Write a sequence for this structure.
């Protein structure tokens, strides 16, 4: 995705739900900025996906294309496993698959990982799913919590794809609350949900789970719907960025702020703090930036994130706008600003100060938050911040009507009004004269 969309990030990483894609780094005149590559060695990780399948008793229902829900899910699993990219690490966890009794306490512990997360043995994975038979209760919340543990930790986004046909029958833990807890632990876990013929109550629960982590909800009403959507979600994990953001330390003022090249950076910011960074931009170029702050601790509801671009002398160039990702644990904002040929020069290339050398504007980026901690909430370390910076060729803007065009339009409207009045008056007089004669 192009960061022009200015959406927070980063379903991805921190966000795919939040974060925005980057274009290639642009060579800049002026002081050489520190790039993400200079600050941290990129760490590539393979996509990690955990499929969570509901095998509770209700999956025996035969209401999808005349087939049972479990058979449709098994077919979809088989086709997806066959199409998996070789680099994908896949795991499969089931719930309600083994306990046949009526003891709810025991049945609500019924979740197992039948394929560990790792390189895929396609035949073994398909065989493990093919032998499943609908059996017991529906401990969705517990299964999500265990699935997150199965995926482990890492610097890149991890995905859970939940397929179920019914509401959790074992709360607590409530699955929506579990999703919020998982999201609060970091911004690299996304839960997508697929509903098999669910009712309205189930739909709301699955929507809540997905929204809490920046994931998606889809109702699968046919075998093809389920297969197609499942493939899309697994493929999406491959598209998630696989580079660790570079650590950077923002400052309390612009003059001594770190100079950044296009890249993805991470920092920490305490409550109600302002963090400053600098980005060099040439005439004819456009700065695109976004920031996401992870709510990794309880905060009051009267909060917000502000991203601003200012000149070195303090003049505000542009103020960012919110770019919601659907996540409840990340607040984001983004902005874009183009450098024109007439912009004041804040900083020039010392080696080539001739008039033909483009002036470089050093733009100051300031990240501010208006968060207020709840009683007992720790203030340090600061909340995780992810800053995305890109500099690209300025986007052309469509020509707008100038003053001349405005006068022409006004003249045409005036003439049209006069003609309409004359015609209306003539018709009125003709009608009155005709009426009197009769």
């Amino acid at each position: 995705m192009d960061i022009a969309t200015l959406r927070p990030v980063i379903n991805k990483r921190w966000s795919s739900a939040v974060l925005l894609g980057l274009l290639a780094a642009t060579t800049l005149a002026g002081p050489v900025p520190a790039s993400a590559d200079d600050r941290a060695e990129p760490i590539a990780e393979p996509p990690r996906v955990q499929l969570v399948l509901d095998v509770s008793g209700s999956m025996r229902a035969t209401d999808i294309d005349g087939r049972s829900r479990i058979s449709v899910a098994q077919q979809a699993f088989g086709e997806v496993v066959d199409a998996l990219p070789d680099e994908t690490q896949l795991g499969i966890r089931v719930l309600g698959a083994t306990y046949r009794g009526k003891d709810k306490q025991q049945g609500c512990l019924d979740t197992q990982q039948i394929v560990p997360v790792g390189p895929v043995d396609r035949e073994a994975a398909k065989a493990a799913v093919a032998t499943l038979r609908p059996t017991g209760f529906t401990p969705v919340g517990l299964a999500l919590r265990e699935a997150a543990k199965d995926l482990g930790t890492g610097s890149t986004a991890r995905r859970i794809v939940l397929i179920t046909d019914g509401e959790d029958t074992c709360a607590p833990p409530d699955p929506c609350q579990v999703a919020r807890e998982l999201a609060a632990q970091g911004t690299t876990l996304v839960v997508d949900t697929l509903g098999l013929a669910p009712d309205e109550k189930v739909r709301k629960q699955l929507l809540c789970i997905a929204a809490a982590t920046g994931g998606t909800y889809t109702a699968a009403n046919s075998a093809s719907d389920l297969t197609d959507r499942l493939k899309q979600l697994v493929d999406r994990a491959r598209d998630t960025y696989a580079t660790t953001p570079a650590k950077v330390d923002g400052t309390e003022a612009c003059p001594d702020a770190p100079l950044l090249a296009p890249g993805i950076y991470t920092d920490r910011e305490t409550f109600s703090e302002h963090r400053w960074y600098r980005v060099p931009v040439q005439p004819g170029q456009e700065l695109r930036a976004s920031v996401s702050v992870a709510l990794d601790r309880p905060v009051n509801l009267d909060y917000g994130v502000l991203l601003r671009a200012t000149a070195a002398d303090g003049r505000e160039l542009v103020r960012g706008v919110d770019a919601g990702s659907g996540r409840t644990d990340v607040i984001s904002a983004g902005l874009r600003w183009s450098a024109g040929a007439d912009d004041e020069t804040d900083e020039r290339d010392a080696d080539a100060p001739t008039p033909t050398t483009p002036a470089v504007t050093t733009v100051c980026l300031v990240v501010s938050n208006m968060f207020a901690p709840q009683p007992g909430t720790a203030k340090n370390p600061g909340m995780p911040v992810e800053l995305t910076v890109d500099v690209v060729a300025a986007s052309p803007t469509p020509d707008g009507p100038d003053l001349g065009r405005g006068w022409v339009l006004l003249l045409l409207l005036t003439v049209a009004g006069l003609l309409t009045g004359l015609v209306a008056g003539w018709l009125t007089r003709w009608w009155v004269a005709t009426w009197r004669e009769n």
